[in-house]
């Protein structure tokens, strides 16, 4: 680096940012390095992504299929328990088992969605389950409101002759 001011020629201290004589800012010379338009081998090595082997792809697809089957088995078991709770005397047991299997199915579905992001079956199932849950909540609220109005109507106007 030149140690003289470009404006007045006064000698500058190393590290000075302004000329002490005239106040001109010191501009450091920057060395320009010309870059090659050809990428270096290091850059090429970073950009290369290894493609999974056919065996690895097959194993991943098999794991996805197993996960999907587990999800559908849990939801199917939940539906079967709902059906059994309507027709069997141990309805409390089957109702509780239905809820547990449904929750396990939902957990497996969420896990599958995070692990297999590109699986359209899991994505579609998750959307379906969420829509059904929201509809179930809405229907339950409507039925509850209707029951409140029905009970109010019965208590406000009790039957006079039940015989």
Describe this protein's structure.
This protein has a domain at 59-156. The chain has 4 helices and no strands. The model has no long low-confidence stretch (mean pLDDT 75). The relative contact order is 0.06. α2 runs antiparallel to α3 and α3 packs antiparallel against α4. By secondary structure, the chain is mainly alpha-helical. Helices cover 63% and strands 0% of the residues.
| CA radius of gyration | 37 Å
The largest sheet, given as strand count, sense and whether it forms a barrel, is: none
Question: Percentage of helical residues?
Answer: 55-70%
Supply the number of helical segments: 4
Please mark out the parts with pLDDT under 50 across 5 or more consecutive residues, or reply none.
none
Instruction: Name the average pLDDT.
Output: 75
Number of strands: 0
Secondary-structure-based class equals mainly alpha
CA-based shape: elongated
Element pattern in H and E: HHHH
- Tell me the strand percentage band: under 5%
Task: Name a few traits of the molecule.
mainly alpha
SSE inventory with pairings:
Layout: H1 41-47, H2 54-87, H3 91-115, H4 120-156
Helix pairs in contact: 2-3, 3-4
Provide a concise account of the structure shown.
This protein has 163 residues and is an all-alpha fold. The protein has helices at residues 41-47, 54-87, 91-115, 120-156.
């Amino acid at each position: 680096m030149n140690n003289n001011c470009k404006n007045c020629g006064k000698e500058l201290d190393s590290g000075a940012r302004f000329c002490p004589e005239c106040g001109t800012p010191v501009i450091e010379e920057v060395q320009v390095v010309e870059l090659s338009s050809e990428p270096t081998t290091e850059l090429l090595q970073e950009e290369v992504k290894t493609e999974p082997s056919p065996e690895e792809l097959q194993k991943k697809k098999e794991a996805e299929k197993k996960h999907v089957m587990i999800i559908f088995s849990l939801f199917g078991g939940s539906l079967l328990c709902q059906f059994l709770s309507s027709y069997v005397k141990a309805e409390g047991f089957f109702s509780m088992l239905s809820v547990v299997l449904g929750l396990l199915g939902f957990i497996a579905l969420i896990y599958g969605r995070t692990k297999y992001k590109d699986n359209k079956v899991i994505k579609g199932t998750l959307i379906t389950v969420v829509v059904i849950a929201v509809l179930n909540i809405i229907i339950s609220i409507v039925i509850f409101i209707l029951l409140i109005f029905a009970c109010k109507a019965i208590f406000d106007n009790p039957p006079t002759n039940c015989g």
